Amino acid sequence: MNMRINWVILCALVLLVIENAVVPWIIPSAWSERLLPHLCFIVTLFVATFAGRHPAFLFGLGFGLLQDLLSYGHLIGPYGFGMGLIGYLAGLASERKSTTIGFFIGTVIISGLLLDSIIYFIYKLFLITDLQYTYVFYWQVAPTALLQLLIALLMYVPVRRFLVKPSLASGEENPE
Amino acid sequence: MGQIFRLMRNKRLFILMIGLILFIVLMGITLGRTRLTWPEKFINDAFGTVQGVLYRPVGAVADFFRDIGRLSDVYKENEQLRQTVAQYTQDQIKFNLLEAENKRLQEDLNFTEQQKNSDNYRYLIAQVEGSTSNPYEKTITINLGSRDGIKPEMAVRTVDGLVGLVSKVKNFTSTVTLITNLDPNSSRGTPVSATFLSKPDSFGIIEYDDESGALQMTKIDERDKPVEGDKVITSGLGSLFPKGIIIGTVKSSQVGDFGLTYTAIIEPAAKFNHLREVFVVVVPSEVDEP
């Protein structure tokens, strides 16, 4: 484990509060149904990239369920399932490849699209939504994924500096 | 190819399947439940309170900047308000006379105390404490809970009009489902019955069409053809739901599904995002129950 995981959890809790309390005010009214960034999910991807698949799985599962609980209207579980699964897959992918920024960008985009698609299909399965997938993809999934990429890039440098232990950031020199 | 097989080794596939089944069970159990267990209440209350600390000041700042942007409209708005106030004063006189007469008639007809009070709604002011980023569950959190007498399915309104219904009640906070979540073709939500202001006997059901993003009033009788610009209010049929809350104005109308009814497209009176303060409407007969 190469991350300061306690600090990461604290940051994710703060970000969850920000996501529900501050982000709705920043997004303009006309876009408020289209841009719904999941900040905890971005942190999960950082964990997947820098700490590996098992921490990412647990992290995604925990914060996904927390998020489900806070927005509970119909179901509990979609985000718990989606974020756990994608955290694991992203961790798996980044353990096989190198953790370059280009790879990270690809991970964020693909995972963002995948997560919102999984959420959509779960709600479709339980007959809570009857929208077409193509419409949802254009209306909400794609803009959200792009915004998440932007936020992830903004967070990239601070996360590497403060939350990743220097043993990884500076290579193999001090393997402590 | 070999990589894919390694990825899907038996153990992982097995765990994934178990996880999938567990989650589907969890979702099935939590679908359509109204009561919450104490850990859910506790987590929601804790986060709701912390969110409120952040949501309200940020909202105040955001509103301030929006108001600066709208400074040029103030003169026009002032003019409009002046006219409205003049109209209102006129109506007030008429209203007082009518109310006095209504009260006298109720006395004459021996209305019970409960019947007399059935229209005296109580409004509880609630601060909004946050909204969620889940696209299929557009909910807001308010800072009133079961301790303040909030119950599920109470109406929530702003100064402008109906916003939503209380869906989940915690001890100190509650979740409000917005009326943009009432979808006609799905199994979710409680139907809200509505009527036209000019035709108090008309009847329709409020629904929201996700695809076109418009609020609709459906199943209107063919004798009550919707008139453009008419106000739509809640009808309060069933008496659990308050009547007379403005929902919006009719934008256009069309013939409904089987050609026997009308469907009216409604321009909502209230905004559904960037909310700061809402009112929970308490119907008196509900309060008197033990």
Question: How would you describe the overall organization of this protein?
Answer:
The complex is a heterodimer of chains A (about 180) and B (about 290). By secondary structure, chain A is mainly alpha-helical. Chain A has one domain: Arp2/3 complex 21 kDa subunit ARPC3 (Orthogonal Bundle), CATH 1.10.1760. Helices cover about 75% and strands about 0% of the residues of chain A. In chain A, helix 3 runs parallel beside helix 5 (about 80-95), helix 3 packs across helix 7 and helix 6 (about 100-125) packs across helix 7 (about 135-165). Chain A is globular, with a radius of gyration of 16 Å. By secondary structure, chain B is of the alpha+beta class. Chain B has helices spanning about 1-5, 10-30, 40-70, 75-110, 115, 285-290, and strands at about 120-130, 140, 155, 160-170, 175-180, 190-195, 205-210, 215-220, 230-235, 245-255, 260-270, 275-280. Chain B is globular and about 80 Å long.
Descriptive terms for the model:
heterodimer, A: about 180 residues, mainly alpha, Arp2/3 complex 21 kDa subunit ARPC3, 8 helices, about 75% helix, about 0% strand, B: about 290 residues, alpha+beta, six-stranded antiparallel beta barrel, 12 strands
- Number of folding domains of chain A? 1
Q: How many DSSP H or I helices of chain B?
A: 6
* Continuous helix count of chain A: 8
Supply Rg of chain A.
16 Å
**Major β-sheet annotation of chain A:** none
Q: Roughly how many Å is the radius of gyration of chain B?
A: 23 Å
Q: From the helix content, strand content and strand pairing of chain A, which structural class follows?
A: mainly alpha
In the sheet with the most strands of chain B, the strands line up as 1-2-5-4-3-12
N to C succession of SSEs of chain B: HHHHHEEEEEEEEEEEEH
Determine the mean pLDDT of chain B: 83
Query: Which blocks of ≥5 consecutive residues of chain B have pLDDT under 50?
Result: 286-290
Structural class of chain B: alpha+beta
* Pattern of helices and strands of chain A: HHHHHHHH
**Which of globular, elongated, flat, extended, rod-shaped describes the shape of chain A?**
globular
The main sheet of chain B comes to: 6 strands, antiparallel, barrel
Query: What oligomeric state best describes the polypeptide chains here?
Result: heterodimer
- Assign the CATH class of chain A: Mainly Alpha
Record field, number of beta strands of chain A:
0
